[in-house]
Automatic annotation (TrEMBL):
Residues 51-130 form the Shikimate dehydrogenase substrate binding N-terminal domain. InterPro entries: Aminoacid_DH-like_N_sf (IPR046346), NAD(P)-bd_dom_sf (IPR036291), Shikimate_DH-bd_N (IPR013708), Shikimate_DH_fam (IPR022893). This is Shikimate dehydrogenase substrate binding N-terminal domain-containing protein. It comes from the Eukaryota. GO terms for molecular function: shikimate 3-dehydrogenase (NADP+) activity. One of its GO terms (biological process) is shikimate metabolic process. Pfam families: Shikimate_dh_N.
């Protein structure tokens, strides 16, 4: 199955443009929804940010946000709330101390409906991973949902492989998976790397059909192709960028086994490129990363993406851009945890 239409060539983008202008655009565009809720005083005011998810006991977000909050000299608490109940989400948001939230599986689609508004990115992707607060002209605190997963994918690639902006243009890309992260990956690839088309490999055909139906409405120009069989995979031209979004479990069900075979066929092709795996548990060195490296692909691990996602969230909450030294400190902390406590990841 293919969704296709004319793909207009992009303007000449550079990594410097994306690093500087796009980062600041995240903050500037947020003020479309109202003014800053922050009151700047000589003594920093304590504020609350929450992580909402269904299975987050081992999440690394508190570690990363703790480092980034400390670097900005803020007295903010980042608290995990393990829930899938929208009512609990709304209760936390109603507190005047709450200035934002991080939203993870399986709440990325459902919790967005509880917010006052969504950014264009979130609307087009169909999933929310971040909320932030702005003050409307009538004084109401409004909660806005956005998606920084797409920014994390983009920035992780560009900070490691800045030449991939021009190298990826006009070549196929591929996304593995069919959930909210897969939607973010499709959006990021199409918006910033401009592939000729995007292949999708996934264990469930129904999820792929839902994605295609969604993007047919929100981004009619996107060209998507479902790689359903090993025969199709063998006949398909190699992509330049691949983004994996599935858990790092050994394939067991028929659909999972077929998806794994399709991915290996693609990775075996003589043309090589870059593979990004958004999964980082139980270890950033996932099976997909190992296979890609064995076949000669460049790779980026999920913790690199996670740090960039958290940086984008920080910009919206603290309303300041973390400097690169803080980002590198967060990355170093992740690598240390990975080295000394692999089970925690």
């Amino acid at each position: 199955m293919i969704i296709c239409s004319t793909h207009t060539p992009p303007p000449q983008l550079t990594s410097q443009y994306l690093f500087i202008d796009a980062v600041m655009d995240i903050l500037q565009q947020s003020y479309r929804y109202g003014k800053s809720p922050l009151i700047f005083t000589p003594t920093p005011v304590p504020r609350d940010v929450f992580l909402f998810g269904g299975n987050i006991s081992r999440s690394l977000s508190p570690l990363l946000h703790g480092i980034l909050f400390k670097s900005r000299n803020t007295r903010w608490a980042f608290t995990k709330v393990e829930t899938t109940y929208e009512s609990e989400f709304k209760t936390r948001l109603n507190s005047t101390a709450t200035t934002g939230a991080s939203i993870t599986m399986p709440n990325k689609v459902t919790f967005g409906k509880a917010l006052d508004d969504l950014t264009e990115d979130a609307r087009m992707i169909g999933a929310v991973n971040t909320s932030f607060v702005r003050v409307a002209p009538d004084g109401r605190r409004v909660h806005i949902g956005t998606n920084t997963d797409c920014v994390g994918i983009r920035d992780a690639i560009l900070h490691r492989h800045s030449s991939d902006i021009s190298a990826a243009y006009g070549k196929a890309a591929m996304v593995i998976g069919g959930g909210g992260a897969a939607r973010s990956a499709i959006y990021a690839l199409w918006k910033w790397f401009r592939p000729s088309e995007i292949y999708i490999a996934n264990r469930l055909k129904s999820e792929v059909e839902d994605i295609m139906s969604h993007f047919k409405t929100t981004i009619p120009s996107v060209r998507l192709r479902h790689i359903e069989t090993t025969i199709t995979a063998n006949r398909t031209k190699a992509p330049y960028i691949i983004v994996g979004t599935i858990p790092d479990y050994a394939p067991a069900q028929q659909g999972e086994i077929l998806c794994a075979r399709i991915c290996e066929i693609i990775l075996r092709k003589p043309e090589k490129g870059l593979l990004v795996d958004m999964c980082y548990m139980p270890s950033p060195q996932t099976n997909l990363i190992n296979i890609a490296q064995d076949y000669g692909w460049e790779t980026i691990v999920g913790t690199d993406v996670l740090v960039r996602v958290c940086v984008a969230q920080q910009i919206l909450w603290v309303e300041e851009e973390p400097n690169e030294m803080d980002v590198q400190q967060a990355l170093a902390a992740l690598r240390e945890v990975s080295r000394t406590e692999p089970a925690r990841l």
